[in-house]
Design a protein that fits this description.
transmembrane, two-stranded parallel ribbon, transferase
C-alpha cells in the first residue's frame, strides 16, 4: 500500500486513526497499541499477504533473542553466541531474499557454473526492519535495552509510517513514546500539524518528483538500449533524476513524519536538505540520516572507526560505504556507487586534514555546494543505471557536444577533441536552454527555500530535531512569518498543495526507496 494511493488517503489512514483514538481516549492504551499493530500488519500484507510470515517470524525470533540477551543469566561467552546467532540469522534472511539472485548471476557470468534458480521476490521493507532489529540485538547485548514489552516491540518494528522505507528507527526513540499516555489521547494540534506535513510531502512526490521522472526515465532507458545520446539529452536526464530522487525521498520522509504525528508519535529526522551540503561528509549527515547513523554506530565504529590510524580509517570508511551501497541494491552499480562515496569521504577527510582554515564567504559556500552537488550527481548516474553499460552510455553522451566546428573554439576546441569529446550533437536549441534553466531553478528551490523541518520548526516535527543547528536560508532570514502557523493564510496554502496533489493521483507511482 502506498502513501500516495487514494485507498490509503481516503480509507486506510482515516479508519486507522479514528479507531486508534476512539480506543485510546477511553484509556485502553494496550488495546489501542494492539489495533495499531494489526493495522500496520494489514498495511504490510496488502502488498502480498504471503510474506506476512517473514516480518512476523523476524519479530518473534529477534524479540526472543533480545530478551535472552538482556537476561541476567546470559553472560560471557553465551551472550556472545546468542548475539552472533541473532545477527547471522538476520543477515541470512536478508541475504536470501535480496542477494541470492545477484550472487548466482555473478557466479554464472564467470562461467564457473550455470545454476538456474527461480527469481526470488524481495519482501517489502526487509532491509529496513532487518537493520532495525540488528541494532536492537546489539544494544541488548550491551545492556542498553530496558524495554521488554512484546506488544510495544511489535509496534516498534511494524509501525506503518516508517515500515516500508524508513526511517530506520531506534528503540530508544520509539519505545518510550509508546508508553506515554498522551500518545493515545486525541490532540487536535497533532492532527493539524500531521495533515499539513503529510500534504507538503504528497505535493513533493506527486507534483514535483513524478513529473521529473517523465524526463529522467526515457533517457536512462535509451542508454540501456545502447542508443547514441548527446550532451543536453543526458544532462536533462541526470538533472531530472537528481531532483526526482531528492523530492521523492524528501516527500516520503515528510509524509512519514506527518502520518506518525497524526498518532502522536515523532519519528527521527531522516532527510535534511542534503543538496545544501558543502562537502560529502556533510551530505551524509543530511541524506538518509538514520541509515548513516546505523552504518556509523554498528559498522564503522565497531571496525575501529578513526581510532586506529589514518590508513585503517580509510579502509573502514570504504568498507562501510561498500556495505551501504550493497544495502541499497543487489547490483554492481550499487556497489560502485558505494565505492565512489567511500572514495569521496576519504578525500574529504584528507582535505580537511590539509586545509583547516574555513572561508566563511558566500562565494566559498556556493562553490563548495556546487562541487558537492556535481560529485553527488555523477554518483547518481551509477545509482540509477541498471548496468555499467547504461551508465557508460550516459557518460559518453556528455562527450557528444552540440554541433560547433571545433576550429571556431580555437585551442579549447582542439583540447576537447584531444580529450575525446565530439561535436556531433544537434545545435543548441531552445529546449537545451530550458535544461540549463531547469537546473538553476531546482537548485535555487532546494538552496533558498526553507525545508519542511524549518517551516514547522516551532512545533518540533521530528524527534530530536533542533532548528538552531541549521543555518538560516534566504527566505527564512528575510521573514520569520514564513514559519508554519495554524492560521488562515497557511490553511489556504496547505489546501492548495493538497488539492494540486489529489488532482495528480490518477497515476499512482511507487516511492523510489520502496525498492530497497
Amino acid at each position: 500500500m502506498l502513501f500516495n494511493s487514494p485507498f490509503f488517503i481516503f480509507a486506510f489512514l482515516p479508519i486507522a486513526a479514528i479507531v486508534f483514538y476512539l480506543i485510546g481516549n477511553r484509556g485502553h492504551f494496550r488495546i489501542a497499541t494492539s489495533w495499531l499493530v494489526l493495522a500496520s500488519l494489514f498495511f504490510y500484507g496488502y502488498w502480498n499477504p504471503a510474506y506476512l510470515w517473514v516480518i512476523v517470524g523476524s519479530i518473534l525470533v529477534n524479540y526472543s533473542l533480545g530478551v535472552l540477551l538482556s537476561a541476567s543469566a546470559t553472560k560471557g561467552q553465551l551472550k556472545n553466541i546468542v548475539l552472533a546467532i541473532g545477527v547471522v540469522a538476520n543477515i541470512l534472511l536478508l541475504g536470501y531474499y535480496k542477494y541470492v539472485n545477484f550472487f548466482m548471476d555473478t557466479i554464472n557470468r564467470t562461467g564457473l557454473s550455470d545454476i538456474q534458480i527461480e527469481s526470488i521476490v524481495l519482501p517489502l521493507a526487509i532491509s529496513f526492519f532487518t537493520f532495525q532489529q540488528i541494532a536492537y540485538l546489539v544494544d541488548a547485548w550491551k545492556g542498553e535495552v530496558k524495554e521488554y514489552n512484546f506488544l510495544d516491540y511489535c509496534l516498534f518494528v511494524t509501525f506503518f509510517p516508517q515500515l516500508i522505507a524508513g526511517p530506520i528507527v531506534h528503540h530508544k526513540e520509539m519505545l518510550p513514546q509508546f508508553k506515554e499516555g498522551k500518545t493515545y489521547k486525541l490532540n487536535h494540534f497533532n492532527i493539524t500539524i500531521g495533515i499539513s506535513i503529510f500534504l507538503v510531502g504528497l505535493f513533493k512526490k506527486v507534483v514535483i518528483a513524478d513529473n521529473l521522472s517523465v524526463l529522467a526515465s526515457p533517457v536512462f532507458s535509451a542508454a540501456e538500449n545502447g542508443e547514441v545520446l548527446h550532451f543536453f539529452e543526458v544532462a536533462e536526464g541526470v538533472i531530472a533524476y537528481t531532483f526526482q530522487l531528492y523530492f521523492d525521498f524528501s516527500g516520503y520522509s515528510d509524509m512519514a513524519v506527518g502520518i506518525a504525528r497524526l498518532f502522536g508519535i515523532r519519528l527521527p529526522l531522516n532527510f535534511n536538505s542534503p543538496y545544501k551540503a558543502e562537502n560529502i561528509i556533510d551530505f551524509w549527515r543530511r541524506w538518509h540520516i538514520t541509515l548513516s547513523r546505523f552504518l556509523r554506530d554498528y559498522i564503522y565504529i565497531p571496525l575501529g572507526g578513526n581510532r586506529k590510524g589514518r590508513s585503517r580509517r580509510h579502509i573502514n570508511l570504504m568498507a562501510t560505504m561498500l556495505l551501504g551501497g550493497l544495502w541499497h541494491g543487489a547490483g554492481w552499480t550499487f556497489v560502485f556507487w558505494g565505492a565512489l562515496h567511500g572514495f569521496y569521504l576519504i578525500v574529504n577527510h584528507g582535505w580537511q586534514k590539509i586545509w583547516k582554515r574555513r572561508i566563511n564567504k558566500w562565494w566559498s559556500v556556493a562553490i563548495s555546494r556546487i562541487v558537492t552537488l556535481f560529485l553527488v550527481m555523477f554518483a547518481w548516474i551509477f545509482f540509477r543505471a541498471e548496468s555499467f553499460d547504461g551508465a557508460m552510455q550516459i557518460l559518453k553522451g556528455f562527450t557528444n557536444l552540440p554541433h560547433t566546428p571545433s576550429e571556431n573554439l580555437g585551442f579549447i576546441g582542439d583540447l576537447l577533441v584531444f580529450m575525446g569529446f565530439q561535436f556531433n550533437g544537434p545545435s543548441i536549441s531552445a529546449s537545451d536552454i530550458k535544461v540549463i534553466l531547469m537546473f538553476f531553478a531546482l537548485t535555487a528551490i532546494v538552496w533558498f527555500i526553507p525545508n519542511t523541518q524549518q517551516l514547522f520548526a516551532k512545533y518540533r516535527p521530528a524527534y530530536g530535531y533542533s532548528w538552531r543547528t541549521d543555518k538560516p536560508v534566504l527566505l527564512q532570514s528575510l521573514n520569520r512569518k514564513f514559519y508554519w502557523r495554524p492560521n488562515v493564510a497557511w490553511s489556504v496554502w496547505i489546501a492548495i498543495l493538497g488539492a494540486s496533489s489529489l488532482l495528480s493521483l490518477s497515476q499512482v507511482s511507487e516511492f523510489l526507496y520502496f525498492q530497497f
